[in-house]
Write a structure and sequence with these properties.
With 201 residues, this protein is α/β, with parallel strands linked by helices. It has one domain: Ribonuclease H-like superfamily/Ribonuclease H (Nucleotidyltransferase, domain 5), CATH 3.30.420.10. The protein contains 7 helices and 5 strands, in the order E-E-H-E-H-H-E-E-H-H-H-H. Strands 3-2-1-4-5 form a 5-stranded mixed sheet, sandwiched between helices. Helix 1 crosses helix 4 and helix 2 crosses helix 3.
């Protein structure tokens, strides 16, 4: 989109970071970091939540081909249960940035919370709609997580994860009420909230 920008200092090697799946009831949270060429532009690039599945597929292929460096990290449901979803999301973004083939000089993070980190960084609320590198990271995080959940859906068809991607949709919550939790559900979050769900059959 035309309103997406690079960061303030054109001389810095900047990486954008974002995650996908933070609000889900099952599966991993997936984080991505991307370093784009300074002149990178694509008319479809935007916050992944504002793009279509078809556009995201197109953008993923282009970003993975044209990015200077990119990395995607999967943080398991088990680790989410152990350290909580906020810490898991931040850890994933840190690991994605640290595992880039080129060390960035500055990291742009979508959100408003981050832990102490060895690379200079700044958080931006709704950064995936403001900066190209964060938008690109949001596309990779979203597409890689969706692909993972589509594969899991084959073994757990009762939850219809291919459609809801394990978000807390009514369909997914009704399925949990009916079939119970599976090994991939985030039990630290969901067990304490399951009884609060008011669903009439």
């Amino acid at each position: 989109m035309g309103n997406l920008l690079s960061f303030f200092n054109e001389n810095l090697i900047e990486a954008g970071c974002d995650e996908a799946g933070r609000g889900c009831l099952a599966g991993p949270v997936v984080a991505a970091a991307v370093i784009l060429p300074k002149d990178f532009h694509h008319k479809l690039l935007d916050d992944s939540k504002k793009t279509t599945e078809k556009s995201r597929a197109i953008l993923r292929e282009i970003i993975e081909k044209e990015a200077i460096s990119w990395n995607v990290q999967f943080i398991s449901h088990a680790l989410i249960d152990e350290i909580n979803i906020l810490n898991a999301s931040i850890y994933g973004m840190q690991q994605a940035a640290l595992n880039l083939h080129i060390r960035p000089e500055f990291v742009l993070i979508d959100g408003n919370s981050f832990h102490k980190f060895e690379i200079p960084h700044q958080t931006f609320i709704k950064g995936d709609g403001r900066f190209k590198s964060i938008a690109a990271a949001s596309i990779l995080a979203k597409t890689h997580r969706d692909e993972f959940m589509d594969k899991l859906a084959v073994d757990f068809p009762q939850y219809n994860w291919k459609r809801n991607k394990a978000y807390a949709t009514l369909e997914h919550r009704i399925a949990i009420k009916k079939y119970g939790l599976c090994e991939f559900h985030r039990k630290s979050f969901h067990l304490k909230n399951l009884n609060q769900l008011e669903i009439e059959f």
